[in-house]
C-alpha cells in the first residue's frame, strides 16, 4: 500500500477519537455495574433488573409478539 495516498493526520484523528470513546464506554460500563451493585445491596435482583431494562428498550409491539410466542412455546412443552 502506498502510504503517500493515506492522510496520516486525518487517520490518526479518527483513531484517537475512537480510543477516547472506548475509554468513555468503559467508564460508563463501570458506572452501570456500580448501579446494579447498589440495587443488589438494597435487596433487588440485578438479573431481573437487567431483564426489565432490556424489555423497556424493545418496541411495545415486538415485546408483545415475543411474549405471545414464548407463551405458545411454553404451552407446547407443558410449561404453560
UniProtKB/TrEMBL annotation:
The keyword Coiled coil applies. Residues 9-78 form the GapR-like DNA-binding domain. Signal peptide: none annotated. Keywords: Coiled coil. One of its GO terms (molecular function) is DNA binding. InterPro entries: GapR-like (IPR018753), GapR-like_DNA-bd (IPR046367). It comes from the Bacteria. Residues 11-38 form a coiled coil. Belongs to the UPF0335 family. This is UPF0335 protein F7D14_02610. The lineage of its organism: Bacteria, Pseudomonadati, Pseudomonadota, Alphaproteobacteria, Hyphomicrobiales.
Amino acid at each position: 500500500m502506498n502510504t503517500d495516498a493515506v492522510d496520516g493526520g486525518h487517520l490518526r484523528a479518527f483513531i484517537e477519537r475512537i480510543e477516547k470513546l472506548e475509554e468513555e464506554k468503559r467508564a460508563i460500563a463501570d458506572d452501570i455495574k456500580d448501579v446494579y451493585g447498589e440495587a443488589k445491596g438494597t435487596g433487588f435482583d440485578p438479573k431481573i433488573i437487567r431483564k426489565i431494562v432490556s424489555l423497556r428498550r424493545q418496541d411495545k409491539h415486538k415485546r408483545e409478539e415475543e411474549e405471545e410466542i414464548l407463551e405458545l412455546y411454553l404451552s407446547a412443552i407443558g410449561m404453560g
